UniProtKB/TrEMBL annotation:
<dbReference type="InterPro" id="IPR006860">
    <property type="entry name" value="FecR"/>
</dbReference>
<protein>
    <submittedName>
        <fullName>Anti-FecI sigma factor, FecR</fullName>
    </submittedName>
</protein>
<dbReference type="InterPro" id="IPR032508">
    <property type="entry name" value="FecR_C"/>
</dbReference>
<dbReference type="Pfam" id="PF16344">
    <property type="entry name" value="FecR_C"/>
</dbReference>
<dbReference type="InterPro" id="IPR012373">
    <property type="entry name" value="Ferrdict_sens_TM"/>
</dbReference>
<feature type="domain" description="Protein FecR C-terminal">
    <location>
        <begin position="239"/>
        <end position="306"/>
    </location>
</feature>
<dbReference type="Pfam" id="PF04773">
    <property type="entry name" value="FecR"/>
</dbReference>
<feature type="domain" description="FecR protein">
    <location>
        <begin position="109"/>
        <end position="196"/>
    </location>
</feature>
<dbReference type="GO" id="GO:0016989">
    <property type="term" value="F:sigma factor antagonist activity"/>
</dbReference>
Amino acid sequence: MVNRTKGYLQYLIDKVEENTISAGEKKLLDDYMQYEYDQAEWDAAKMGSKEKVSASIYQQISTPTQHKKSVRQYYKYAIAASIALLVCLGIELKLQSSASKIYSLSTSSSLDSVVLNDGSTVYLAAHSILNYPAQFEGQTREVSLIKGNAFFKVTKDPAHPFIITSGNIKTKVLGTSFHISLEKDRSSVTVVTGLVHVSSKKQVVILKPNEEVVATKAGFKKLKVTDTYLYHWYEKDIELNNVSLDKVFTLLKFKYGIQFNPENKRILDTRLTLYIKGDLPLQKILSQINYITNLKFKTYENSVVVNE
């Protein structure tokens, strides 16, 4: 975030030096420090008086001068000093411009969710990252799934399509619910309700409920989905009745972002009934499965090895 902010500030400083900066961009520079210090958590005991520090920087930015070169230098040195100060103090820089801020929701070993400003809800699985704007602007509502699994419940708005970028594909909807999975070499979109438009640079496919598209380097592959309950991994309580271990592992993979590797594929046909209550840790669920099936699990950072 700091590098991106510095890059954009340098771009504006260059425009000052070239005398091509617009009034709006100049105002952005003038307002920058005021906004950041207002938003930051300030520890006066460690950092000194917030008003005195900010006033010192603002004086350099706003003091009038008759020489354009001096003005440019004040911008350059004042902003560079302010960035260095904030970095040293450990304050995260968020550049406020006419466009909405972009936030990033990142999960570790547990799930999380966010309600977007249009009322849409995104459920983010463990080990996943979602980027989204504080406020949707323009003719579209756009977010990005950077990693992992997410389930979307999109508020219907025909005038403003909802677009998700995940790897090399774009998913476009008006109002529906669906699951997106983004892995290293593949991505997939599975529709639960409504119609979904999925596209890459070379292909386009329209999905209906209980349909899925898997995207790899080889292209799109459209499939029928019979076990849609697997895509309700985000629900608080999950009840699985007489399902194969293969299906259980699929749901847990979506929910916890971890790959299951059985040493003997035959065990995947084992059937069991399992109740997952709330945000139960993965290890607790594996203990339940061990109690039912007597299977052994060895957990690594991103995978679980299963043996008899």
